[in-house]
Amino acid sequence: MFDAPFPPHDLQDKNRLGSHETLVIHWPTIIADLVDHIHQLIDGTLAAGSDDTLASGGLGEAAADLKINEGEEIISKVIRLKHRMESDQELEKIPEDGEFYVDEYNSELEKLARIGKNTWFVVPWLFTEYRLIRSYFKQTTYWADFDPFRTKKEETFRNSATAVYQIATMMHDMDSEKDSLVDPAKLLVLFKEMVQMCLWCDLSFLIHLAPCDIEQFQEVGRDAQRVRKEYILKDDQESAWEHIESLQPRAGLVARCDIVLDNVLTNRKLFTDLVFADFLVTHTPYFSTVVFHPKLFPWFVSDVTPADFYRTIQSLSSPTFFNKTATTTESARHLKEMVERWERYLREGVFCLSTALEGGQKKTQFWTGPWPYWYMEDKANELWRSLSESSLVIIKCYRLTGDVKWPVSTPFATALGPLAGSFPLLSLRTNKSDVVVGVPQDAADRLDKQDKRWKVNGKYALVSFVSNTHRI
C-alpha cells in the first residue's frame, strides 16, 4: 500500500485557508441551511405536497405523522453534529445503515483514534465529508432517498438560463459549420475553450465562439486564451490534445472518454460537462462514447447522483423550466435540438452513466469511499481495470492527490502515487483547497506575495495530464 511521504493537512492550521474556513464557516452554514430546509418541508412544503419526493398526498395520517417525526429526528441529529463539529469532538462511527463501506469507514476512524487524529479539528480532510449525515436519512422510512441539496441545485441552475441558451446557440452554430472544423488547430482552440469552461464553470467563456466567421472565431479564442493563460498555473492542455490526436479513428475502434462527475452546488457544472462531452463525440473524430461517473448518493455538499443526471436533462427538455424572458424563440429551438441529441446519444449508448453498465453499481461505490484515489487498484480493482481500458479519463476532484502537504513543486504524477500511468488522465482543478501540486516554486512564491488566497479562491487553475505510459 502506498503511503504519501508527507503528512495530511491539519484542519486547525489557520494558514490552510480553505480548510479552516470550511470548518468554521462553510460547514456550519451548510448544516444550518439543511436544518432550515427540513423545517420548511415539515411546516409547509411537506403538508402542501409540493416536493414530489416527500409529498404526503395519498398517505394515511399515521404515515404522515411518521414522516414528520422522522424529519424532526434528523434535525435533532444534524444540530447535535454541528455542535460536535464546532467543539472539536470525536467523529462518531457510521451506524449500520445499509449502505456500503460502513466497516471500512469505521476501521479507518479507529486507526485515527489510536493516533489522536479523530476529532473534527485534526482529522484528515477525507474523513470530514458528510457520510454520517447520509446515515441520518438512510435509516428512515420516508426520507431514505431524500437529497437535501436538490432544491438549491435546481434554483441555481434556473438562474443560468441566459448562458445556457447562448451555449445552445453556439453549439448549433458549430454544428452548422462542422465541415469547417476539420483542421486540428481549430479543434485545439475549441478544446481549450471547453477545458476552461469546465475549470471555472463559467458558461460565458464559450459565448463569444459562434463561428459565423471561422477564422475570426479562432483568433478570438486564442486572444481570450492568452488572457486566461496566466491563471492556469500548470498547463498541460496541449499535451492532452496531442494524446487525443493520437486516437486516430480506426475500423472497429471505440475510443471512450470517462468523465468523473464532480461534487456541485448547481447543475450548471454538470451542464458544462455534457457540453464538453458533446463536443468530443460530435465535433472531433476521436471519441465514440462518453461514460459519466456519478456518486450513488449526495455525499458532500451536493454530488451529482444518477437522479441529478437524468433530471438535469429532463429540466433542459422542459419548456417551462427556465424563464421564457431569458431567451428568444430561436435560442429555445437550439436548446431543444442540443438536448434531443443528448437524449438520442443516451438511447444509442454514445452517452451513458457508469451505473447503467454491467457491474456499474459496485464500481461506482469507490467514489464515496474513505480513500485517496491512489488506492483504486487495490480497493476497487474492477473500476480500475475498466478505466484502464479508457482512451481518456477526466477527473476534477482533489482526492486524486490526497489531503497531503505536498510541496507545490511536486510533480503531478508523483502526487498520484501508484495511480499514475494506470490510464490517460486529465485532471481539471480550480484552486479551491490547499492541496496544490505541479506549480514551480518561484511562481508559488510570487503568488504568495501577491495574493495569500491564491490556493483557495477559485481564481487560478491546474490542468494536469499524465499518459498511461507513466508508471512509478
**Portion in helices:** 40-55%
The biggest beta sheet, please? 7 strands, mixed
Uncertain parts: 48-56, 207-221
Shape: globular
Radius of gyration: 23 Å
* Ends distance: 13 Å
Proportion of residues in β-strands: 5-15%
- The average pLDDT value, as a whole number, equals 85
**H/E order of the elements?**
HHHHHHHHHEHEHEHHEHHHEHEHE
Number of helices: 18
Biggest sheet: strand arrangement? 1-7-6-5-2-3-4
Helix-strand category: alpha/beta
Instruction: Say how many strands there are.
Output: 7
Protein traits:
seven-stranded mixed beta sheet; 7 strands; 472 residues; 48% helix; alpha/beta; single chain
Summarize the structure.
By secondary structure, the protein is α/β, with parallel strands linked by helices. It has helices spanning 17-48, 61-86, 102-114, 131-138, 150-158, 161-176, 184-200, 204-207, 214-229, 237-245, 268-283, 306-317, 329-348, 360-364, 376-379, 381-387, 412-415, 441-450, and strands spanning 232-235, 256-260, 289-293, 351-353, 392-395, 425-430, 461-466. α6 packs parallel to α11.
Explain this structure to me?
Residues about 50-55 and about 205-220 have low confidence and may be disordered. With about 475 residues, the protein is an alpha/beta fold. β5, α17 and β6 (about 425-430) form a beta-alpha-beta unit. α6 packs parallel to α11 and α7 crosses α10. The protein has 18 helices and seven strands. Strands 1-7-6-5-2-3-4 form a seven-stranded mixed β-sheet. The longest helix has about 30 residues, at about 15-50.
